[in-house]
Amino acid sequence: MMKIVFICSGNTSRSPMAEGIFRKMVKNADVSSAGFSTESGEKADEYACLVCRKHGIDLSDFKTTNISDVDFNSVDLVLTATVKNREKIKKFYPDINAYTIRQYGGCNSNLDIKDPSDGGLGSYVVCYFKIKEALEKILKTHSEFEVLM
Prior knowledge:
It is a single chain. The two termini are 19 Å apart. The chain contains 5 helices and 4 strands. A 4-stranded parallel sheet has the order 2-1-3-4, sandwiched between helices. Strand 3 (77-80), helix 3 (83-92) and strand 4 form a beta-alpha-beta unit. The relative contact order is 0.21. The chain is α/β, with parallel strands linked by helices.
């Protein structure tokens, strides 16, 4: 089973949403998420929880994880929200298999998924659908995942 870690800056919105969406889409992956600037054990953002709940994904028990608490030696794939996050993780773990979520789905431009925390609920809705679209593209182009939907 492939072990995947989604990474964003704070692990409160983009990466937990990606983790939740991906869990709902596939059944043969060990999925988690982490962030650079978070303490382990915090809750997901309220708007991220609300948007996910509207789509049948429960983040109410989600707890943040700092990247220092991840055993990257056992990780097969790291998918980041932004190019900056990808470059940062590659700096710490040069041999890690890391891509942005959109890049791994085959996108060649606009590789970043913008942090919704600067906007209101609408920003989280847009972010949710950008993540979902990118993950759907991953599932179309990578046959190693067994799709649930």
